[in-house]
Write a structure and sequence with these properties.
single chain, 5 helices, about 170 residues, alpha+beta, 5-stranded antiparallel β-sheet
Length: about 170
């Protein structure tokens, strides 16, 4: 008897402290499935951290990354403030994972207004190299095989196929 696939669904309130344990849960699943090596699992973990953080902070709480660049303390304060204010406090983040030894797929959806993912500045161009915004999406695209957003920009589906499968 062996586990061939697993599908899990989590609903999170807007608490950044929940992100790391959730990513850890998914990474433990990947290790149990022998999906990739430590490097691949670390990369998937980074992509998950970025996608979930973006959905929670920028999506549900509508706190922009420009504020983090200019005033880091104000950025953190606004996150804490909006966690208790409506409509932000009522919003939830849903994360679904489909995992097997052959492939993984994560769907992350927030209740925020969405964003125009196609209009992000190119984070590799010289004028943007030192900017914090847009880097998370670049990391997600670098570490995952397929990254797709819905038309509203409040859901991302990221997937990766196993590079080598041990039988």
């Amino acid at each position: 008897m062996c586990l061939r696939n697993c599908e899990t669904r989590f609903e999170l309130k807007n608490d950044p402290a929940l992100i790391s344990p959730l990513v850890g849960y998914f990474l433990a699943d990947l290790e149990r499935f022998s999906f990739g090596d430590d490097v691949v699992r670390t990369q998937v973990g980074i992509a998950l951290m970025e996608a979930i953080s973006n959905a929670m902070i920028h999506g549900n709480l509508e706190v922009g990354s420009e504020l983090r660049r200019r005033q880091p303390a104000a950025f953190e304060n606004l996150i804490q403030q909006r966690r208790t204010q409506n409509p932000y406090a009522e919003r939830r983040l849903v994360c679904t994972a489909k995992q097997s030894p052959e492939s993984i797929e994560f769907t992350i959806r927030d209740d925020g207004p969405g964003f125009q993912y196609f209009s992000l500045p190119d984070p590799t161009s010289p004028e943007n190299l030192l900017r914090a915004s847009g880097r998370g999406v670049m990391l997600i695209r670098t570490f995952m095989d397929v990254v797709e957003y819905n038309s509203k920009g409040n859901q991302v589906i990221m997937s990766k196929r196993a590079e080598s499968i041990s039988e």
